[in-house]
Amino acid sequence: MNNIEPTLGQDVPAPLGGAVPLRALREAAGRLLLPLWRGDLKFRRTGWQFALLVAAAAAAVVYGAWQQDVIHDFSAMAGARVAYVFYMVPALDLGTQDRPLAELLVWIAIGRALFDILCAWLDMVFHKRITGRPFDWESMINVALVNGLFSCAAFFAVLNQPVRRFLAHYDALVAQVPTLVDLNGSVALAAAVLIGDFCFYWSHRLCHETRCFWNLGHINHHRNRNLTQMTCAIEPGWLPLQAAGGAALLLLPVLSKLFTADIRDAGAALAVLMVIDALVDPSHSIFMYWVESKSRVLRALRHVFVTVGVHYMHHSCEVTGPHGTGANFGARLSIWDRLFGTYVEPTGQLPRTGLFDPHADLCVNPLRYVVLPYLRMGLELRRNRVSDWPFILFGSTDYEPPNPVPLSR
Ligand SMILES: [Zn+2]
Ligand SMILES: [Zn+2]
């Protein structure tokens, strides 16, 4: 922890004439910011601090549930017209379905929402029994704060005019892509699932292999050592750094446009895929990891699907993967990892999760969590020659610049 303080411009000489006010300003900023920067969230388990911990944890649970698409699914119960059948597949208009099937899909959506909440709750209850460590309440509160900050930033990024212009240009470009193949029914559904997960696989892998995507985005999702449904952070949502989404969002419309993805007539396959999606959706649940380790049926799903056990190997800081920068990049299907040689079978032992660097800062502090990777990369750019900048920004995540920055990861 002692190597993670920002330098706050200590190595910048003050300009002549303005030295005293600038130094005074810098010292005042330092006095204000350093305690905020250095401290970790920690609550005593007695008195008012305990009451504050309970209130903050309750707020984090409510916010976490809302973030896991639960609101979408419950809104289906209240008469919404769409259902989310499978990850990365466009929403299905329920008005196009027979009434019994539409009602069944709504009930599955409600079941998926309740299952998500149940898994998050069981993680808290059984964490100590499964891992031997108490549930990390401070981490959950910290992650809720970080996720809130990232969500706000994403909201304002979309309001930003250059971003809107870029998206409008991109939509116009996609509109020109010709449709080559007409598919419908369950074949169209299978194509939509395959295309969606293929795009996710490559964007996710890119995020692990490219310095800026990793350090300025996806590192946040991997920082926590006590992984559960409620303690994994999302990534910054602004383009082009939205870690496991940005590249996919750009590639997906192009590939989808090549086919007509009319999934309306897929019938029972819609319900079957939706149940499978619900089953593997709580992919960070320590409780579901434990259940899978006891269930031969759930383990058999690994042949095709990214089960919780498979995704835990992705979060492992012990398994570097066949290419050195990680393994198991798929979101729902394990076939891409098997095909492109990045699949690692779960070992049966609960892996240690977190960053590969054993001295990485856990950042149980929203300020450090959000700013540290940006500060680190900013200092790397400042302390190295311009000719090194392409490698600092777009090099492999293994790359270390000639003048490294002694900040923790
Ligand atoms: Zn990842
Ligand atoms: Zn994950």
Order of strands in the sheet with most strands: 1-2
Query: Can you tell me the overall shape?
Result: globular
Specify the biggest β-sheet: 2 strands, antiparallel
Ligands in the model, by name, code or SMILES, are: zinc ion
The arrangement of helices and strands along the chain is: HHEEHHHEHHHEHHHHHHH
Overall residue-averaged pLDDT value: 82
Total strands: the figure is 4
User: Whole-Å distance between the termini?
Assistant: 11 Å
Summed up, the helix count is: 15
Strand content: under 5%
Helix residue percentage: 55-70%
Notes on the protein architecture:
By secondary structure, the chain is an all-alpha fold. The protein has one domain (42-394). It has 15 helices and four strands. It has helices at 19-38, 47-77, 99-131, 137-159, 161-175, 185-209, 211-222, 246-257, 268-280, 286-294, 296-300, 308-314, 335-339, 366-383, 389-394; strands spanning 82-83, 92-93, 181-184, 259-262. The strands form two sheets. The protein has a two-stranded antiparallel sheet with strand order 1-2. The chain has a two-stranded parallel sheet with strand order 3-4. Strand 1 and strand 2 (92-93) form a beta hairpin. The radius of gyration is 23 Å and the shape is globular. Residues 1-18 have low confidence and may be disordered. Bound molecules: zinc ion (2 copies). One zinc ion binds next to helix 6 and helix 7.
